[in-house]
Amino acid sequence: MKKVIITGVTGQDGSHMADYLLANDDIDIVAGVRRLSVKNHENIKHLVDNPRFKLIDLDVTDQANVDRVILEEKPDYFINFAANSFVGVSWDMPENHMKTNCMAVLYQLEAIRKHCPWCRYYNAGSSEEFGDVVTTPQDETHPLRPRSPYGASKAAARHLVKVWRESYGLYAIQGWLFNHEGTRRGEEFLTRKVTKAVARIVKEIRDGKEVKPLEIGNLDSKRDWSDAEDFVAGIWLMLNQEKPKEYVLASGETYTIREFVESAFGFAGFNPDECYWEGEGTNSKYYHCDQLLVKINPKYYRPAEVNLLLGDPSLAEEEMGWVRKTDFYGLVKKMVDNDINML
Ligand code: NDP
């Protein structure tokens, strides 16, 4: 049996990775969670009785804790999904982003170097490292030009991973992940915020209650969205190459937030022929017949918007045989169906 430590297992990617690996008989999972006053184990509650899934206390910002866990467990793989992952808040808490997304990576690399240098290490990189892009689409050769404290923390971690890989011969990599979403996405993230709001509005209309419109930011921002379940499969491929090599995982397509919103209401049963936009910019409003569904709140605009982030996944597809199973519309439908079913 191979032993895999996963951090950030209560989050979207960590929980999907645990599911993905447990479907493989030869893997035992050690799942790191940080202690919180109120547990948030919703995404892993179906795993806690699985004998191949062990929960341990692991706060990645605590170096002694990280060192002890790696010394005691001596894993074959270490997959780091723990992060402060919300770009928008990174201007408010930049130090926390640097500690959680960058210094924590240093603690992990150093402990692996000392206690189990055979361990294969993955840290979750981000398209936000490209930030102020100079070419589109972005591939593995694009320079790092972050535009947010979050992007800067991930770019700094990337350099550490490279230095530890090259200096100590570790199998340590940080693949670039473009946006990926799903039914376990945190509710503060745009896609989930939209699909939760769509489900709520469906219920409000069904119950004859007053409809509270969804409030969002820049409708014309474009994103490259994929399904998180496709990404964990790609990350596992990346960890199992002959030699350590970093790849971009992306859909290679972009859609606007406006298109995401329209699709989400469409999959919830709102007839697109009866839906329409009125106004422009911050005055844009989306209606179904006379019912206001969406309006703009400028507080959701970012202080510095990234330019078009569009990933080029062709290297991952050609060299690793990575295949995406879910397209944009499949993703939106899956999220809307899930949130309506949860009502
Ligand atoms: P989530 O926000 O869903 O999960 C983050 C996880 O990190 C949570 O389990 C959280 O635990 C944990 N965590 C935060 N701080 C600590 C800490 N100090 N010690 C231990 N655990 C901690 O993120 P995703 O699953 O979406 O993303 C996974 C990784 O991929 C992150 O590194 C993210 O930055 C990166 N990424 C994600 C993208 C996306 O589109 N989803 C795009 C590009 C990169 P708790 O539940 O206790 O808060």
Describe the structure.
The protein is of the alpha/beta class and 343 residues long. The protein has two domains: 2-177, NAD(P)-binding Rossmann-like Domain (Rossmann fold, 3-Layer(aba) Sandwich), CATH 3.40.50; 190-221 and 256-307 and 330-341, Alpha-Beta Complex (UDP-galactose 4-epimerase, domain 1), CATH 3.90.25.10. Helix content is 36%, strand content 17%. The protein has nine helices and 17 strands. A six-stranded parallel β-sheet has the order 3-2-1-4-5-7, with helices on both faces. A four-stranded mixed β-sheet has the order 10-17-16-15, covered by helices on one side. Strands 6-8-13 form a three-stranded parallel β-sheet. α2 packs parallel to α3 (94-115), α5 packs parallel to α7 (257-267) and α5 crosses α9. It is globular, with a radius of gyration of 21 Å. The structure holds NADPH dihydro-nicotinamide-adenine-dinucleotide phosphate. Residues 7-8, 10-14, 34, 36, 40, 58-61, 81-85, 100, 124, 126, 177, 179-180, 186 line the site of NADPH dihydro-nicotinamide-adenine-dinucleotide phosphate. NADPH dihydro-nicotinamide-adenine-dinucleotide phosphate binds at residues 7-8, 10-14, 34, 36, 40, 58-61, 81-85, 100, 124, 126, 177, 179-180, 186.
Helix content: 25-40%
Strand content: 15-25%
Cα-based radius of gyration, to the nearest Å: 21 Å
Poorly predicted tracts of residues:
none
